[in-house]
Amino acid sequence: MPIIATQGLTMRFPRVTALDDLTVAVEPGIIGLVGANGAGKSTLIRILLGLQRPTSGRASVLGLDIARDGARIRERVGFMPEYECLPPDVSATEFVVHMARMCGLPPTAARERAADTLRHVGLYEERYRPIGGYSTGMRQRVKLAQALVHDPQLVFLDEPTNGLDPAGRDEMLGLIRRIGTEFGISVLVTSHLLGELERICDHVVIIDGGRLLRSQAVEAYTAASGSLTVEVDEGRDRLAALLAEAGLAVRAEGRQLVVDIADESTYDLIRDGVADLGLRLVRLEQRRHRIEEVFAPASHQAAAPGAPPAPPGAYPQGGVR
Ligand SMILES: Nc1ncnc2c1ncn2[C@@H]1O[C@H](COP(=O)(O)OP(=O)(O)OP(=O)(O)O)[C@@H](O)[C@H]1O
Predict the structure, then answer these.
(1) What is the ipTM of this complex?
(2) Residue numbers of the domain that contains 281
(3) Domain termination site, one of 171, 202, 221
(4) What is the SS3 assignment for 292?
(5) Is the C-beta atom of 13 inside 6 A of ligand 1?
(6) Care to name a GO molecular-function term for this sequence (predicted)?
(7) Ligand 1, pocket-test mutation among 12, 42, 48, most atoms within 8 A of CB
(8) Domain containing 284 — which CATH number?
């Protein structure tokens, strides 16, 4: 059964159509919802939580109808909002216990669950300090903890990596992956960065201007390409020259070479070239497409097999990288 299904979901505001006839269904797992700023991601989350009534269309979450079962959906779904929503003068423990009590947990269970959840998100040591003194990364973790404290089946994480530096971003992405794999909680995570979701998601839904562009398993976006990545510890340029002389299409990319696969003999030519030059082979593998390439400008695009060309102007604001 899909954990989320929408049919013809439309949300019109006076000046803008935030969701436009959106029909999509996703199975349990870690699902990425990607779109530029203003694509309609937060609006979709609010509608799925039963907090906003759509103009038209239908949707269900965990098999529950958003029009009838909003309260039951919110009991089973955790929500980490994009906006800053934390009181500065209470500690993480006080806040997360309070949120657990709001979800109906008795006092002792609320304290235990809050402590467990704060430990899982890596905030155990600092949990008694007032939130006002926390870094952005720590505040994001408190928001994540309150979304998880009532042991939901599914969590909606709205732009959880917003404002984080690269290290903080990596840690948050690792944490989200663990929520899915170790705790078995399904995740819908939004981002305007395709690349970061590719690393942690099972399935990615891409929307633009409230319309569905793609909904696919990550492997379908990152299908094997027709080229090989070759890495040697030294002598990259000598190997490139030798392979080019043998008639292969070779180009350097960082420390690696990218070699187009002509046929089975390509592998033999690379193996023999490395041996003849006395080099040490660090890596030889078939390249996979990256999700970004699907939406790269046509001139740079190495189209995935069967993939339609990138829609022109898919991300006019350039928000998706
Ligand atoms: N309550 C509202 N009233 C009027 N317009 C709204 C309202 N909420 C959202 N919108 C508009 O709907 C569109 C989609 O907004 P939404 O917040 O869902 O996008 P988003 O993909 O989450 O973008 P962001 O990452 O910037 O939050 C935007 O043009 C926004 O200005």
Answers:
(1) 0.96
(2) 224-288
(3) 221
(4) helix
(5) yes
(6) ATP hydrolysis activity
(7) 42
(8) 3.30.70.100
